Structures are given as C-alpha cells and as structure tokens.
Structures
1.
Amino acid sequence: MLGIRGTWCLAWALGVQILVAATGASTVQAQTAAAEKLPAEAFYRDDDVQLAVLSPSGQRVALIMGQRGVRNRLLVADPRTPGAITQAAFFTDLDVEDVHWVNEERLVFTVRDRERRGVDGAEGLASVPPGLFSVRPDGSQLRTLIRLHGGAGSATGSRLAREQGLHWNHLLLHTGSGEGDEVVVGELVGESGGELRAVVPKRLDVVNGRETPVPFGPRGMTRSWLFDQRGEPRLAQSFAEGRSRLHWRAPGKDDWEEIAEFDYLHAPFIPHSIDSQGQLYVTAPEGAVGIQVLTQFDFKSRGPQAKPLVRADGFDFQGRLISEVQGGRALGVRVVTDAESTVWFDERLQALQAEVDKRFPGRVNRLSCQRCDGDAMVLLIYSYADRDPGRYFMVDVAAKRWIALGAVRRDIDPQRMALMNFDRIKARDGRDLPVWTTLPAGSAAAPRPAVLLVHGGPWVRGATWSWRPTAQFLASRGYVVIEPEFRGSNGYGAAHHRAGWREWGRAMQDDLADAVDWAVKKGLVDGKRVCIAGASYGGYATLMGLARHPELYRCGAAWVAVTEPRLMFESSWRNDLTAEARRFSLPEMVGDLERDPPAWWAVISPLAQAARIKAPVLLAFGDQDRRVPLVHGTKMRDALRAAGNVPEFVIYEDEGHGWDKLKTKVDFANRLEHFLAKHLK
C-alpha cells in the first residue's frame, strides 16, 4: 500500500519561488490571533501552480506556474531528482495557458496575451483561438505552430507568435497517442460575412511544422470532431439551419456515413467520446425529467442504447472517460454530481483511489496515471476542497514514495475560508431548485447579511463543490453567498433546463426570490440585508430583480450585464452572437422579435423597467465587450439617471466580456466590497 517515505520541496531552478510541500490535507494551522482580511488580490490573482501534467513515461511533470507581476511560464521537472527542473518556456509579454505532452521529448502549449485578451477579437468568432508552440522539455527547439491573432506587443514572444507558424485561425484538436511527432489541428473556415462555417482538420508535425491533409469526410458546416487514439477522425458533427447532422467513419473504413440528424435544441443524444475500440459514447436524456446519462451508441438502431453505463441521480452526466491518452482504453469514469468523484474499472486503481481518499478525507482527490498497467505506475494527485484550492502530489507506486509538487495557492489558509453547502429546495410552483450557499468561516447561528450571486449563461451549470474566488471573497467580508441553479441552468435534467426557455425576467426571476426566502426562513440570512449581484445574464437578473422584487434587495451590482434583450438580435461587428443563434436559438430560448409584441419584451427589459428600480446600483462594463456591447451599459446608466437613480458606473478599458487583467479584477472587487458595505452594513 502507499506510504509517505518523505516529501520534497520543488524549487524553481531560477531561485524565484519555493512551493509549499505538504503531507496532509492542510499545511497551514489556524491563527490564534484575529487575522486581518486577505486583500482582494489574494482571491483573484493567478494560481501558483495552475496545471500539472505527467509525461508519457511518468518520469517528468510539466507545470504551468504563476508568479505575481510576471507572465505565466512553463516548467518541466523530474521530481525524483532534486534540482532537476528547467524552464521550458517563458515570454515577457505572453502567458502560457495550457500544455500537453506529444511524446516524451516534445510538448505543445498554448499562449495568450492576457493583458489584451479583451481586445484581441476577430470578426464572427466568440473566442479567438490561442497561439500554439512546441518545445523540448529542456526549453530548446521552441517553434511557433499557430500564430496569435492581432498585432499587439513588441517583445520577442509576440513577434515570434505573430509572424511565424500557421495562420491564427487554427486550434488544437487532438494531441496524439504519446508517440510520434504529430498533432491534429483544425482550420476555422468562415463565411463571407466572417462567421464560422466549418472546422477543417489537418495533421501538423510539431518538429518541422509540416502539414498533412486528414480525410476530411463530410463537407459543409462541420464544426465538431471526435478522434480515436491515433488521431483518426471518427465522428463529424455539423450545425446549420437549426439542425445537426452526425457522420461516422468506422475503424478500418475510409467512407463516412450519416448516422443521425436532429433539431439541435431538442437533441435525442449528444456525442461524448470514443475509446480505443472505436466505440462511440453518447449522453442521452432518461426519465420524465430528462436526466442525461452516459451510454453507448447502437449503430444498428441509430440511437443510444437503452441501458446506461453511468447514471447520477438528480444530476446530468458531466464528466469524462479516463485514459492515458486521448481516445485510449477506458480505465474509469470521472463524474460530477454536487462534487467530482471517480469510478475506476481497474481494481488496482480503485484500491489506490480508496487509499488516497482515506488519507485525505472530505476532499476531492483526482488521480491520473501513466504506465497504468505495469509495476512502474506513476500517479498524479490533485486534492482540493471547498475551503482549499488544492495541492498536487506525484506518487511512485512501487517505491511508495510521495512527492509534493506544491499548493495551488500558497497564501490561502483553508482554516480561514468559507464552507460551501448544496441543498435542493422547492420553488413556488413545486419545481426542484438546487441552491448553493457559502457560509463565512466561524459564522455564528445568527442571520447575516447576504449576497444573492446569479450565474451567467444562463444555460450553464453555475457551480460545483470547490474553492471559488468570488464566493470566497464575499464570504471573507462576512456575507452569506446564495447561488441558485435557477430553471434554465444545465446539469439538472432537460426539464429543468427547458423550464427556463422564454422565462427571462419571469419564472427564472421567481426562482431567485424563492432562494432568498428559503435562506431567510432557514435562519441563515437577515432578510432586511440582501443585495443581488451577477455578471452577463447574472447582471441582467440583478437589474430585473431590483425591478420585480424591490422588497427583497437593498442594492444590486451588475457587470457586463444584458440590459435590453432585444439588442442581442442586432447584427454588427460589436455583437459576436452568430446569425444561427439569432435565427434559431434565441427566438426559442429567449423570445421572438417577430411574433412577440413590444409589450411582451418590455416586461423582461431592465432598460424599459428602469423607472421601477429604486435601490442603489453598481454597473461595470468592458469597452471591448463583443458579447454584451458597451451600449447595454450606457443606455442603462442614462435610463437610471433619467429616473432619478444615479448609479455607480465604471468602464474598464481594454476589457471584454469579463475581467482578464488582475488590476481590473482587484479594482472591481474593491468597488464591490465598498458598495456592499455601504448598503448592507
């Protein structure tokens, strides 16, 4: 069995930083004296250890490291040998974002200029792909594979990333089997108006940059691909005119065949993954509430098999099959319910999981492995909790040797962080309503002031059990944080998701009010001291909450907020929503400009309801936002002023739909803290 023979502090070869070694769930003891509040920067800065990835042999680990005031860098270490660490990649004007091992001697990694991410946009694309590099573990033979979009920056990194390699309209699709020098990238092909039409795959040699065509298969609007372990395309999915088509290329075959066509808003199943045997896995709704389960695709019936492989009661299947390489043999499945858990098909790995869980109880312990079948198995463990951003360990199983790679955030004391709870309550119409609450550390039983924090999307899942910066920041200032998974949210069944369609400002808003009422009745919250806050759709719901339920909220903070839903239908370079979304998705999920009368729209428009908003308002927008253009903010500001309620209003330069720069995050957090204290305390 596993045993700790000793730990080792991993130090940067450059002598810049020492990472914390740990042998237990927490290395920091609670302070006996009253501690000062952590500054906002402690919650919003980059992680110290952002990612750790084992090499194919398990001998080395690639680490993306953050450091205050310096761009994120890529290090490669042999943790068994103290001091055996190299800086594989670092730029003075670019940040390393993600990393993959192509083989034991070659890595690929993505980069962005995070100081300009908000302005580094492109016509018709909601998210511009990052640049891609390859490099040897020792930092030699650095090569640009996909150059960055835009012309900002003058240092070597920017010039190299923008003047060499494939055109910026490519993205990494598949990293291969751990052998060979090729990856699969996709070229983004646009319409004449600039919108994305298709993703065309091609092989790319990471050593010499040579391109090789991939059997392209079905022509047309193919935007999504699944590949097997060797990087062979097996599934192609297209989206056009409100319909989705799936084409399949069986192992050993050259021809593609159409296996399904359906309305993508009412999909009978969703492609999920492919294993080493060429089996297609899909998720499909089950039962009256339409909970998504994982199952195999039946090529004879052209639909999902009736018997699910994985079912999580009350939660849609969200997770992945675990394998050593993409598309490889399935070793287990990772599932997210309220928190993440893992079920291993391999008995040895299941026993190791049980042992790690026993050592670190009450935490999520994510195991991955290399050399998984043999005596030389190496584990990488990422262990985290709601109060702890987590820490990484590497384990030599045969030697029973644990090596601490470091804490994700060194300056976060778990003892001072807040607890996160999950409940299911009843909405006013009887619908199940999942609700998260984050309770300040050491809080007494007496009701406390609260922030109702509304997630964006809105058609996403809002939270999972983990350490989350904004909720923890607000809790550190003494607020109970309430986060409902209101109808329209994903993750809790198709019925819950679709119950939010065409309910902006209506039933979706009532769910938020019901969550507040529940928290007040439970004794968690002082009902006279509640503010509502959120970004994007959450900002929209904030403003609508102040208009529809003024008795509940003392104030509201809305950033990058939709203030007039009809503006989402406008076609301009400032609006990155596609024509496909405006024609087929928004009319069914939000409202129909042609069929719904102006009065219907006025009821769900914060802009039209501005005169009803009497509570104090904080508004913040990015001047380069292309998802919710700045006009949403200026119109709302002017309407509130005209109604006699002058809001606090801030525009952040060179920021898009959300804050990327640390200085922006800290400035807004401090503004929010001051605003809440002024009106709740």
2.
Amino acid sequence: MTPLRSKVRCEIAALLAVFFLGGCASLAPPVQRVDQITPEGAGDTEIEQNVRELLADAKDESAAVYLQNGVDAFAARLAAVERSTRSVDAQYYLFHNDITGNLFAERLLTAAQRGIRVRLLLDDMGTQGQDDYLLALDAHPNIDIRIFNPFANRKYRALEYLYRFGIVTRRMHNKSLIIDGAAAITGGRNIGDEYFDAHHQSNFLDMDVLIFGPAVTDVSAQFDQYWNSPLSYDIDILSGTEESPEDIQRQWQELHEFAESQKDNLYIETLRATPFLEYLNEKRLPISIGPTTVLADLPQKVREPLFEEETHLGPALWEYFRESATELVILNPYFIPGEKGVDALAQAVARGCRVIVLTNSLAANDVAAVHGHYSKYRKPLIQAGVELYELKLDRPYSRVGQELDSAQAVKMGLHVKTFVFDREKTFIGSLNLDPRSVYQNTELGVIIDDAEMANEIATLALELLPDVAYRVELDNSGSLMWHGKDYETGESIKLDHEPDAGIFLRLFAFISRILPVESQL
C-alpha cells in the first residue's frame, strides 16, 4: 500500500469516527430548576376587563371565535401579542424562518422590549439550523426559549433516528398562544407562511379558535406542564454555544428592519385591511359562548408505551364520537382510521348517524405515505355508508375575499383538524386521526359546546364540498370512482384513478401502502 493511499484511508477513518461519535451524542441530564407557573391575573389588564364584561352573565362558560381564514388567523396572533400587558406564552410544533415566522418573532421581541415576559416552547423537529436565531431571541432578558424532546446532536440528526428511534420520533404537536393568561389561540396552525395564506405556491386550509374565559386557564396549565417538563431544555444549555453581544444586537436589528421592510408588502396590506381587526377593535367579533372543554395529552406521553392511555386525550375524545346520534362531520388531513376506526364509524352509520369525512386527495397530501395507508380503508368506509370526500389540489377562489396578486398560491392542502358532533359540539385542535397523533405525538384541542358555532362550521363545510373536493364512491363493479365539478365550466367530472396525481406519485403511495410503517404515520 502506498503512503498516500494509507494516509487517505486514515483520514477517511478519522472522519467516519468523528461522524459516528458525533451522531451518537447524548443529552445532558435535565437541569434542576424551579417550576414556572403562569400567575393568576389581578383582573386589571384591558383583556381581562373585556373578558369580564363579555362573560358577565355566563357562569363557568367561555367565549370562542373560530378562525377559518389564514389571514385572520395571523392578524389575530399579531394583535394578541401587541395587546399583551403581562405575558405571552407560545407553543408550536413548527416555527419557520420565513415571512410570517420572522414577523411573529419580531412581534415577540418588541413585546419583550416593552417589558412583557415571553416564553417560547418549540418542538425540536423543525428547529434544525435555527439555534443561533433562537439564541439571539433568548438572549433578551424577558424572553426564555425551551426545546421539547430535543435531538442531542444539533447539526447531524440522521443517526439519532437509528439509535434513539422511538424517542426522537415522538413529538410535541401542540399549538397554543396564551396572552396574559386571559386569552388563547389554539388549533391546527403552526407558524409559517403556508398556514396563513402567505405562501406563493401552496397554502393549507386550516382552523384555529380564539378563546376567552375559564378554558384559557386549562390551555395555560397544559403549557406550564410542558414548559416545566424534564423533556424541555433551555436553548442556551442545549446549544452549548454563546452569541456575542454584537451578534445579538445585529440580529435584533435585522428582525426590526425586516418588519419595517414588509410594511408595503401586499400581504401586510391585506392583513391591515381584514375585517377581523375592525371587528376586534369595535368589540363585535362573532362570539360563541358556552361550556368549553380543553383536551390535552400529558408531556410524558412521548416516553410511555404507545398503548398506555393514561396520558392520552383520546379516551375522553372518543366518547363524543360514540355519542354522536344524527351527524358526524370529520375534517382531517392525515386520516388513517385503522380497522377500529372503520368499525366505530360503521357503528355510527348503523345507529342512524350521517358520517361525512373530508381528507386530502393524494395530489393535495404533502405526505404521500400517509395517503398510501389511508387508501386501504376507503372501500370499507364507503361500504359502511360513510360519505367520503378528498380535497382537490387546486383552489377555486381566494379565501381572503380578494386577489392578492398574480403570484398568489393556487394550490391548497387540508390541514384542518376539526370534528362537529350532531351540530352541537365542535372539536378544534391539533389531532390527526392517524396512529402518530393518537399514540405517538402529543396533541391539544378544545371542544366548544355551542350549537350555533357547530351548525355554522358544519354548514360551511358541507356547502363547500362540491366545489373543493371529490366525492369518492364505488361503481357497480366495486371499483373506486371520483366525482367532482370543473371550476371553470361547472361540468361534472368522473375519474377512475387518483385525481391530479402523476404515475410516480401514485406508485410511491402504492409502495408505501405495502410497507409495514402504518404505526409511524
């Protein structure tokens, strides 16, 4: 062997050793710390006074406003943080470093700079490459950032899926924003352009709910549970690096300059023009008032065996499914009911309950493997009498009431996690009806007991179905058929294959379907 070849082999061996040893990094033990609990308000903030006035005649009930529109949902978040006078607690699965992500981060920084205590709790799935960004925010004395169930290796994560499989694969999927402990926004949206109708290629149909009253205490309590969990690590300790004061000031200034540069952006103009802000300022939001139940998985769920349900929200939620007598509307993007789910929906139909399911078509689904496994249950669901719809890929109109510009996204995907029970109660949350949400990840949602809201959401959904979705049925030979309507001509469409999906996408979904990975989806 030549000396040169020997040297090259030694260098390769050294690089491999560094890679594998780095990949097998382990987390430091959780630091001993005093629990932080959101303090009870003194009732003297503007939000608390408004809530007290709003719920003066309601005993142990909460107020709720559902946020169907992405622009309204983002405007609500910015307005909520801007109106905070004591604290902001934000909990998200994904926090993108894009237009809306940076605008939201800048609004949190501005709140901190005027004395508001800000706590930001993020799952670690979407934070790769963002440690410096998060450290700069965390450096403000009024901002604390923690990462839930983190990866030990901050740069190279792939190997952790091998030696920490079953640990790093279980995530915090909860979404909540709590203002002064008096108002909260929760639902399906992460922080990112595609969740707020700000993306120029594809946006999600989604739903949140803005709530006031006693239910906020429960949303805040679950945040505290996750914040104080040993599974939540302070970003500065986790990262092990330190930003210089000059770098911190520079990044803060860049955030403020970015926000300033966006003031003439057409999307920001649309935000300012949304009727939601007018209704909010004039105190005439379409409020629903009624008992509101908060359902939340416990943070330790991600360490417990999958089928030990003491930490799960599922058992409490399934009662609402079992009690539905006349109509059950399921809007869910990643829908893998399994045999038990098919049986449960079949039983609902058998007892006279109309069951309508809207989920993503293959073309609209951003996780084709999920669609592959969902597809196994289409025929049994239809044979049981379930009305099955799949969202079209193309959006037929602007959901913000006006055209933004010629580059506005024309593709859409379903991200709503909403169930309407007998047009009396509505669940709005982060839960997908798939094994990952039910057994692996942690989730959060609320059930609003208000017939007016339930009827409005169900009516809106069912009226839109012919325009935005294909009805999936069986023909006389038992084969799947997709029935829809052409946006431009209004003519009926009938297809005998997955709509708008090319051969390679259909092949990938088929291959995924036969792989034994359903429990991970």
3.
Amino acid sequence: MSRWPVRVDSVDPLLAVAAAAVAGALAVVAPWPVAMVTCVAWGAAWLPSARRVGRWALALAIVAVAASAWRARRALDREAAVAALAVEALPHPSRCALRGVVAAMPLRRGVMRADLEVEALDCEGQAVRLGGPFGVRIFDLPEGIARDDVVDLVAQLAPARRVRDPDLPDPRPAEARRAIAYSGGAVVVSAVRPSRSLLGALDRARARLRAGIDRALPEEVAPIARALVLGEEDLAAADDEAFRTSGLTHLLAVSGSHVALVVGGLVALLRAAILRAPALARRIEAGRLAAAIGLPLALAYEQLAGDSGSARRATAMAAFVLLVRAFGRKADTVRVLGASTLAALAVDPLAPFDLSFALSLAATVGLLGVAPPVRGYFDRALPRLPRTIRATAAATVAASAACAPLVARLAGSIPSLGLIANLVAVPIGELLALPLANAAALLGAFAGGWPALSSIARALGLASAGALVALRGVARGASAISPVAVPQPDAWELAICVGAVVIVYLAARSARRLAVVVAAAGLSLLSAEALARRSGAPRGELRITFLGVGQGDSAIAHLP
C-alpha cells in the first residue's frame, strides 16, 4: 500500500486551502477579526522555524479566502433581496393556496415539516410572485411526504420571522441557509404527483424507519431513538435540557462517530462476505471492493440519518477515505479533513455557520491535533488505567477543549460534569444504544405481517430502550449540577483563540515559544474582554433590555 506523500514537518496544502475557505466564509460577518487571523497565519508561515507551507498552497489559500467570501456574500445578498420582496408582497398573515415541489428533507419536529419550492401564491385573491422560485416552509404535513413530491395545499402563511439582536450572533447566514420567504401551517394538503427520484425513495425509507421506531420502542424513549437513528430533534423539553446542560447533545447528533460505526461496520461485513467467495477474492482485493461498494452506501446512510451539517461533514470524510481505499491507497486523515471541508463549502458556501457542522469540524480538529499529546500524558501519568479508558478520556478532553469556545459563545456556560458524563455515556450511546436502536428500527420497519420478525423487533426495542434509559439517566444526573458560567466570547476573542492555535501549529516549536504564545493570547483575551465590557456599557443614553423569561415580561432599565 502506498501512502499519500505528506511531510511530517509541512502543512498539507488541502488543509491550508480549506482553512482559508472557512475564513473567507466567516469574513462576511466578522471581516476585521478574520483579517487579523489571516495576517497572523501568513506571518507565522514565513517564520524561519515554521512548518513548511508551499508557495502554491499560500497562493491558493489567498484565492480560497476571496472566492469563499464572494460566494458567501452573494448568498447573503440574495436572501436579503428575497426577504424584502416577500414582506412587501405579503406583509400580513394570509390564507394562501399554492402548488409546490418538496425541496428539502421532511423532518419531524413535533409535527412534520418540509420546505417547498413554489413559483407563486394565491393569497385571498392576490397573486404573490417574487421574480422566480422561492422557498416556503410548511408545518403539519402528512407523514408520507417526500422530496420531489408535487403537492397542492392551502396554508396560513406569513413572512419568515427575522430577528436582529446585537448581543447574539448575526442571524443572516442561518436565514440565508434556510432560504425561506414564507412559513406557516397547512390546512388542506393533496398530493398531485409523487416523486420517483432517489431522494424521494430515501425519504420514504426514513418514514418506514420512523414508523419502525414507534412500533418497536416504548413511547417514552422513542424520541431519543429517532434522534440517534434519524437525526430528528423532537425530544421532550426535560430530556432536551438534560442532554444540553450535561454536554451530551453530541451523542444524539449524527456525526463522525455514528458514521464511523455504521459505515465502518457495513464495509467490514462486506469485506468478510467477499472473502468467503474465493473466486471473487482471488480476482480483486476484498478491502478495495468493499470500499467501492461502501461509498454509495455511506452517501445513502447520510440521507437516512437526517442530512445534518455534522452528518454531511463526517460522510464527506468517510467518502474520501473509501474512495482512496478503493484505488488501493491509504488516505492521510489530515488531507481527508481538508478535502472534505472544501467539498462541503463547494456545496454550501455558508456551511461554517451551521452549528452542527462547526462543532463537528472543531471536534475533529481537536481529535487530530490535541488528542495524541493528551493521550501521551495520560499514558505517562496513569499507566494503571486500562488503555481504552485512557484513549476515551483523551478523545473527550480534546474534543471538549476544541468545542469549548463555540459552546461558550452560544450558551455562556460549560457543563460542570461534561468530561465524566462523556466517559460514562459514550460507551452506552455508541456501543449499545446506537446499534440496538438501528436494528430495532430496521426490523420494525419491515416486520409487517411477520409475527416472528415483529417479536424480534420488540425484543431489540426493549434492549435499546434499556440503553436509552441509562443514557438519559447519565444526562439527567450530570445536569443536576449547574453548568459553569463563562463570559461569552465575541468575534475578536474567538479570533484571538484561533490565532493562537495557528501560531502554535505553525511556529511554536519549543516550550519557551509556546509559553510566549499562551501568555500573549491570555493578555489579548483579557484586553478584548475589557474593551467589550466597556463598549457594552451604556453612556449618556437610556437602555431598556427585555429578557425572554418564558412567561410574562421582564425588563432591565440602564439609566444614563
């Protein structure tokens, strides 16, 4: 087996270009912080002791920054234009009739919803046109709806809600990714023409799996199983809060570990089956053929699992690994990370603003860059612990550290028992709950009139329910202790963290230089926090802040 040639002391060109493309996308909402990180990276790359970055890679990185920023800006401008037209054409909620094509995967969020692409609306006798196809999000749809279905419906629609809060992250990228002009609930739905596309078939398979989960598992834990298997977030409020505050939400999101377990397991089974066919195994290497067959299966699984940002990123990595393996080579993980990130940005220029994508990417970077030294430290400091526990602890620490700035930015807190909860919950969720829930859903979907198959599905469902109850118990126990409140970093503070990581990766090759970088980053963070607090304090003005407390009203008045 040959290996992709990557120097140990060099920066992979695909990784450099992918990082530049991510920076370009982020520049549309934080241009100056991104410019600072870009200048830091450029300067660090030219230091005499820096890792080698090829000139062509640096040139392509500059092109990637500009091209990614241009594509992201176009997407934001297009969304802003459509939003303005939508409000002007239909400023108030109205009863509308429309014919549309289901353009996005139907998902259950308490009720079924889907995004339709329509050309026009007939709203109480008024024709609404926006100069081209536009998106409409419809709730309360029937279970059997699938992509590329053509449907007629009557719905109560209003312009999609757009909220601007200066203390929260810029919502425009998320709005542009949704590309929704109107939203509302369906009153009457009638199918005109069911789809015959592959995507439609996959959506109908998802509906069967959803029905299989409801049939095989107890109602109490079925929402958790749907999150594991289908990536649907319709948990009960108490369970959602428990998983979120305990730091275990990632176990319910279809991400790298899920894709690795399912796709890796399928490829291993395929390889074993090929080896049992001697005539075939003598003509072609079993691993290469299994990888080639596993590639479309990985893409299909990503669709069945909900097509989230984390699932797309992880599946892109798995697809590149399988593709390289099918050609008889061994893929370098760092290069695959760069290639998969570029592929995600080529499809969606605003992918870095997808929270699941961003957290999945950060966790992967942590696993590749932070986990090895942390595991080495655990091996030296705790040699009596089993190797599996040391490896799991190192991976958890690395992924948590990489995701901590993003978690703090969104929640303003860090789970108190996140590390311990993950050490206990990860084996339960990934080695027990995930395979059992998948098996129960699959058998439950096709049990039909087969009593024996139905009995096996229910037995697997009960076993899966036990694992899910244990997983939920860990989440509730860990969430009993309040998370640690931390300052929410702004764009400049996040840029300082990223800049410090870039310098460490490129140029901090000794303990003394590392100490200097850490001290400078700490001083910069303190200065940025002081400036943020100073700029946020009201000066010579009356400021009224309304707090979302769930029930009633709450307001704080800052006097001049």
